[in-house]
Write a structure and sequence with these properties.
This is Pseudouridine synthase. This protein is α+β, with helices and mostly antiparallel strands. It is built from six helices and 18 strands. Strands 7, 8, 9, 10, 11, 12, 15, 16, 17 and 18 form a ten-stranded mixed beta sheet that branches.
């Protein structure tokens, strides 16, 4: 596999070394290959590592098979993909409830396989949604952009917001949960609040609407622990309706939907904001009494 990447530098003047290392976040091993093979061109010309790169310069990168080993997965059904945003490097799609983001086994078909079929190439998961959750999911189209997007996620520069229909009524407009989350020792499927051994977790909950015995809230994540929203809400007496693990209140689906995803595109510095609704989520809301 040979991968060619061309971008117009959106960053202020710097050196080639600093651009690849601190802006494009290319791993050290890959930077070494690019330098020794002279696979970096600025405006069509070969350069040295301390050459200046100005905003607007055209940067050409070439990666060989040994730089990014080729990965293949089974292709799914492209017709099942509903793209929300797409360019040559990444894609955001609308995941339906009841579909896994990625399979647990190499032969298992999930959203990742369908997205790869849609794009005509193997794609990569940047973040995931629980199988029962619907909404916006971000995928990398190539191994070059994947570590860059992973770093944005780690640095909390990808903002994710969810709607949830929960049990009970919130007394305040905004609530912040900071309870640490760990594994449930008695049920491997579940997570619990664990002040001693849990990982830090931060969820901001904003009340949007109150129903009879239920509340519609917006949840914004600063961390991405497994089942984070579900655990935080249920721990504080506001389990999500239809949650098969943490709630006893039935619904036709888990009432959790990732309605908004926003980030600054690392290769263009464009602000990308994607919003999406869910008909099945809206239908359950319509059936609730205010």
């Amino acid at each position: 596999m040979t991968l060619h990447v061309e971008i117009i530098n959106p960053y202020p003047a710097t050196t080639v070394k600093e651009l690849l290392e601190t802006k494009l976040l290319i791993p050290r091993k890959i930077r070494h290959f690019l330098r020794t093979k002279k696979h970096v061109l600025i405006n069509g010309e070969t350069i040295n590592w301390q050459s200046p790169v100005k905003e607007g310069d055209r940067i050409s990168l070439t990666f060989d098979t040994e730089d990014y080993p080729n990965k293949t997965i089974p292709m799914g059904d492209a017709n099942l993909v509903k793209p929300l945003y797409e360019d040559s490097h990444l894609i955001v799609v609308n995941k339906p409830e009841g579909m896994k983001t990625h399979g647990n086994k190499p032969t298992e078909i999930a959203l990742l396989n369908h997205v790869s079929a849609y794009c005509g190439q193997t794609c990569y998961v940047v973040h995931r949604l629980d199988m029962e959750t619907s909404g916006a999911v971000l995928f990398a189209k190539n191994p070059f952009i994947l570590p860059i997007l992973n770093r944005l996620l780690e640095d909390k520069m990808i903002q994710r917001q969810y709607w949830a229909l929960t049990e009970g009524k919130f007394q305040t407009k905004k609530t912040v949960y900071k309870d640490k989350i760990g594994r449930d020792r008695h049920d491997r499927r579940k997570r619990v609040v664990d002040p001693r051994k849990g990982q830090s977790a931060y969820t901001t909950v904003t009340r949007l609407k109150t129903f009879e015995g239920a509340s519609l809230v917006n949840c914004q994540l600063k961390t991405g622990r497994t089942h984070q929203i579900r655990v935080h809400l249920s721990h504080h007496g506001h389990a999500i309706l239809g949650d098969p693990l943490y709630s006893h209140q039935p619904a036709s689906r888990l009432m959790l939907h990732a309605h908004s995803l926003s980030f600054t595109h690392p290769l263009t510095l464009e602000k990308v904001t994607v919003k999406v609704k869910s008909e099945s989520f809206e239908q359950v809301l319509r059936n609730h009494k205010s």
